[in-house]
């Protein structure tokens, strides 16, 4: 059984997030499309956290501060597996994430779909 991990990882100041984002998204897509990698790790949820709520859809105006994500890692990967995933991600290699300051939290979703509540799952 895979284990879920909730991660909060800050950006470096003046990080080149938007320039590196296509490489980061490509990695996520590759994990999902390759059965061998998908069984090793999957990103269940991810997104940026911001200094304030955006007022436009123009991401160049957003105050990015970091990311929050939920990873599904192989059983036994633990915190070291999560750190390795972060360290090798394009956001870390490209100078966006300060991965050494990431908060790594064991996680189990109680609700991932509101319909689960009414179905008693």
Please outline the helices and strands.
Elements: E1 3-10, H1 17-33, H2 35-38, E2 42-50, E3 64-73, H3 78-88, H4 90-93, E4 103-107, H5 115-119
Antiparallel strand pairs: 1-3, 1-4, 2-3
InterPro entries: Dimeric_a/b-barrel, Sec-metab_biosynth-assoc
Organism: Dactylellina haptotyla (strain CBS 200.50) (Nematode-trapping fungus)
Protein name: YCII-related domain-containing protein
In the predicted model, the low-confidence regions spanning at least 5 consecutive residues are: none
Taken as a percent bin, the fraction of beta residues is 25-35%
> What kind of sheet is the major sheet?
4 strands, antiparallel
CATH architecture: 2-Layer Sandwich
Order the strands across the largest sheet as they lie in space. Answer: 2-3-1-4
CATH class equals Alpha Beta
- Total strands: the figure is 4
Radius of gyration: 15 Å
**Name of the CATH homologous superfamily:** Dimeric alpha+beta barrel
Mean pLDDT: 87
Q: Could you give the distance between the termini?
A: 18 Å
Question: How many structural domains can be distinguished in the coordinates?
Answer: 1
In the CATH hierarchy, the third-tier topology is known as: Alpha-Beta Plaits
* Percent helix: 25-40%
- SSE-based structural type: alpha+beta
What is the number of helices?
5
Overall morphology: globular
Run of helices and strands: EHHEEHHEH
Q: What does this 3D model show about the protein?
A:
This is YCII-related domain-containing protein. The structure is a single chain. By secondary structure, the chain is an alpha+beta fold. The protein has one domain (3-119): Alpha-Beta Plaits, CATH 3.30.70.1060. It contains 5 helices and 4 strands. The protein has a 4-stranded antiparallel sheet with strand order 2-3-1-4, with helices on one face. The protein is globular and about 40 Å long. The protein starts with a strand and ends with a helix.
